[in-house]
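User: Sequence recovery, please. Input:
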């Protein structure tokens, strides 16, 4: 998260890659929620067609036509030109988050080049692990200057410490060997860790007096 925020502060685009479940999109959403540099973050599903992506960005930014009227929808070429040449207020550049980028067609690459031509925006591209290397190369060339952040498996030791903290905090009474087995079962994926933590908490609530509410403690949500 710190590396991502620093890259944006330096005016650099960011490419986030990693296996499914490693928390790529959640990490970007957390940086956005923390208000990184007072920037506006606009998320769009880049697995859709350029026309659909253009439509979602028009609805979000509502650039003004020559007449001064805000435009919420338009034909693809008109909308693309409006977004590329849009005048933005003074301040940090807005961030367009391109989520679910698994295939980079010529049309998508052309759309991205047009948006980046006037340097009005910063981009965060969240790429799927199956994106072809040539496509990744073209994406990096289009988003110069950029930095790449790769999210992988968390070390099993850190995952085990996470579950140990969870067990101690909520008095779950789970043996260390069982926690280690849970950690290995998650494979070090944050989403798998969250699901396992939720199951542990639900199981603890089935026992009288063992849930946080029954002990007079505030409810807890795993993060």
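Assistant: Recovered sequence (223 residues):
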């Amino acid at each position: 998260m710190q590396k991502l925020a620093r890259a944006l502060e330096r005016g650099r685009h960011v490419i986030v890659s990693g296996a499914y479940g490693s928390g790529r999109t959640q990490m970007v959403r957390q940086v956005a929620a923390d208000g990184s540099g007072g920037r506006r973050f606009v998320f769009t599903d880049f697995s859709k067609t350029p026309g659909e992506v253009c439509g979602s960005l028009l609805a979000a930014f509502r650039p003004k036509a020559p007449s001064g009227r805000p435009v919420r929808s338009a034909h693809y070429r008109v909308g693309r030109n409006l977004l590329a040449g849009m005048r933005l207020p003074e301040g940090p550049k807005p961030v367009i988050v391109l989520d679910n980028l698994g295939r980079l067609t010529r049309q998508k690459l052309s759309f991205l080049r047009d948006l980046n031509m006037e340097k009005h925006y910063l981009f965060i591209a969240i790429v799927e692990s199956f994106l072809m290397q040539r496509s990744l190369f073209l994406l990096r060339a289009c988003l110069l200057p950029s930095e790449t952040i790769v999210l992988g498996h968390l070390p099993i030791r850190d995952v085990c410490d996470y579950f140990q903290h969870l067990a101690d905090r909520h008095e779950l009474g789970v043996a260390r060997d069982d926690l280690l087995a849970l950690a290995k079962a998650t494979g070090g994926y944050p989403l798998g860790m969250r699901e396992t933590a939720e199951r542990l908490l639900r199981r603890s609530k089935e026992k009288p007096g063992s849930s946080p509410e029954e002990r007079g403690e505030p409810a807890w949500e795993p993060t």
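DSSP finds nine helices and five strands in the chain.
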